[in-house]
Amino acid sequence: MRRRRTALGGLCLLILLLVACVPPSPAGVTMTEEPEPTPIAPTSPPAPTSAGQIGSQLLYVQGVTVSTLAGDGNWGYRDGPGPQARFLGPEGLAVDRQGNIYVAERFGNRIRRINPGGTVSTLAGTGIPGYADGPASSAQFNYPFGLALDGAGNLYVGDTFNHRIRVVHIDGTVSTFAGDGTAGYRDGPTLQAQFDRPTGVAISASGVLYVADSGNNCIRAISPEGMVSTLAGSGERGFKDGPPDQAQFNGPQYLVVGSNGNIYASDSVTFELRGNHAIRRITPAGIVTTLTGTGLPGHADGKVADVGLSLPSGLDVDAVGNLFVADENNQRIRVITPEGMVYTVAGVGVNGYADGDGPYAAFLNPHGVVLDDKGRLYVADVITSRIRVIQLPEMFIGLPPSPTPDPYAGQNVIKIGFVDESNRGSMTSAATGNAVQLAIDEANAAGGVTVGGTRYTLALVRAQDWVQPPDAGAQAAARALVNQGVVAVVGHVLSENSMAGAEVYSPAGVVMVSAVSSDPRLTQAGWSTVFRVTSNDAFMAPVAARMTYEQLGLRRAVLLGEAAPHSRTAMDTWQEAFEALGGQVLGRFEGEDKFLEEVMLQIGDLVPEAIIFFPARDLSIAKAVQQVLDTNVDAVVIGVESFSVDPTFLAVLSDRGEGIYDAVPGVSTASMPGYIDFADRYRSARLAIIPDPDHLLAKFNPFAYDAANVIIAAIRLAAETSEVTLQSVAAAMETFRDQPFQGVTGTILFDEFGDLLDQPVYFKRVVNGQWVDVVP
Predict the structure, then answer these.
(1) Alpha helix segments (H runs only) across 531-620
(2) Do the beta carbons of residue 364 and residue 426 sit within 8 Å?
(3) In angstroms, rounded to a whole number, what is the distance separating the alpha carbons of residues 181 and 196?
């Protein structure tokens, strides 16, 4: 991942850690005006408060600043000056002696380079997923992940889905260094060896290349003589320290080699939703110990034995042993000192994007990190599609730790909860969290809530969901919010997480209003305090079927979905409605991560007019659509809330996405009665971590804003007649089953289940490479 270097430019011969507990800014404060960006490092406003961190021990390194080196925040592919460049999922990073930054672009299937002046260019890869050696301009990669530079300047790449280690040579050619391309496990000569989804790579001073073989749950070593061996890991998935053949990993992801020869591995992999949430240490002899982590997510700072991480990803280490970690699910950059202490370098802990001082900066799934010789730590911020740079202080000087103070101390508060979702939901929760914050800020600016003559401030309390296991993670977040005394919650984002959270909220009497989740089981499970301000799939799918039949005039359809209850429910209701109109469903097929080739052959033989895709959590929708397009079936491709919610979809399909439809819940922004005014207020508030309410990732903002305002209206109704309690707020929510609430998205009136009485649905279509609303 990196070359050997002096520590922070040779300035840190004696390093101690300067820490301070910096409180987040008050929740009701409107952000200051955002300054104009500079050519290399634009400055953004501070991130919204993460009041859910009240009482947590967060120890921030003083004197840290975060800025943006490259990327305009939009997913895509564009070389040029840093602020104008675009990336498709920046992942692993490396830096050379001249200060060039190398970026593995996992969704773009390219290797990019940022020169010391900040200009981005393409080093290797066509952008088309595949496998091809040769000139860099025609070479192909498939999900390139980790990077490592050797002393001669050759760049090694963990080419994950090609199951190979590739090398980009200094002469501009790409070759295969190790792996025969078969997903498997075999030691031996490099080109006969087998790997299973290799991710991180790191090279030692003696020229040994180490590989995080994530699918095999082990660490492999490639000698300078060209032999592959297993350094550590029995191959069995688990969490166990010990000798090489007994140690267990659960998806090792990134690697780095310290100056003492020890190898450090982040033991967590995201594409299978697993991991030990730990940093493991492997000696050159293969003995494995755990540096920090218990197997469960954690987020507080302190001694390594007492704290934890949540899906740690990128790693780098300086010459004196400070180990820098991209703590992905916590949206922070952490450092583990040689003395065994964990501190936060940067990140407020809220999903999003904001530059500035370390405690107020925001990240959205940080992955690769690399340290240069001038004390700059570069971060691949995956979902914001930017390369960030953290300027570290010249020296770290220790101060005694102390807890983060309560930002609401001395105030009367009524708490509303929100869950920051990790990974698949993080891009949406970053935007919806802003809208909830705006609703609360506006309510506080209008006087808050008065109860019995006493003014109360509304406070947004946030909790972080986990990825694995999803039910336990959602329920842990829900319990955290309930324990902090919230009266209601907006969320969660993912349907499975919402249903798991409802099992905690409703028995506790806490109202939950969903702005995103669409699974009908959420409201039909009998929880009396659960509501939804957008359409559910049981309603949306039949409407989409009618639109397909009547609006598009299509009669013969094939249905494709994920092998999961959520997808099957939508498929069932779509098929029933379509056939009732006279349409014909020719076949239904399910896939795991993709569809089998024989399924594609069957689809071609059926000659459908329409191919319908249904919601998926683990199935790669963009790749599945590519499979269909590769069959050259003359059919219209239509999603049921499957395509436009994924920011990588158009980038992966490129011009092949033209003309594709997606049925989405709600109404178009042009049809929302209050959208224009809402968008103006949203922009004026300067809360936008996701830059604009019209941005793809901000699609659910108006619904989240309405969800928060329905809750606030219920709190005010409760305050008029009694004290604000869980019971009085839940009772006030019942009034909106009979008395409509006028929101930005339209009239909100709940039915007996807590769903909207009127659940609108409309089409989006790809026109000239962009999603546009198709309004009948």
Answers:
(1) 537-546, 565-580, 597-606
(2) yes
(3) 9
